[in-house]
């Protein structure tokens, strides 16, 4: 059986991002290079720094054969 999905990746906090809390969850709000306001959840990276959680632009396929090998 196979599945196709997009991974979630973390990226550094954008320059000028404003951190805020909504329903107990932390978010960052910033303006992108086109001037649009963007919002993304914030998580803590391995080094302890704040990072935004985004969806990868690429699709990933995962396949498990009849023997159960991925």
Question: What do these coordinates show?
Answer:
This protein has 70 residues and is an all-beta fold. The chain contains no helices and 5 strands. The chain has a 5-stranded antiparallel β-sheet with strand order 1-5-4-3-2, with no helix packed on it. Strand 4 and strand 5 form a beta hairpin.
Tell me the total number of β-strands. 5
User: What is the string of helix and strand elements?
Assistant: EEEEE
Structural class: mainly beta
Largest beta sheet: strand ordering: 1-5-4-3-2
Cα-to-Cα separation, first versus last residue? 10 Å
Name the poorly predicted regions. Answer: none
How many strands, what sense, and barrel or not for the largest sheet? 5 strands, antiparallel
**Shape assignment:** elongated
Computed CA radius of gyration, to the nearest angstrom: 16 Å
Range of strand content: over 45%
Mean pLDDT: 92
Helix content percent band: under 10%
How many H/I helical runs? 0
């Amino acid at each position: 059986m196979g599945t196709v999905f997009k991974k979630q990746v973390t990226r550094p906090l954008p320059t000028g991002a404003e951190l805020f809390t909504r329903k107990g969850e932390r978010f960052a709000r910033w303006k992108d290079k086109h001037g649009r306001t963007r919002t993304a959840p914030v998580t803590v990276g391995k080094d302890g720094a704040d990072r935004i959680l985004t969806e990868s632009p690429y699709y990933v396929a995962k396949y498990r054969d009849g023997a159960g090998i991925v």
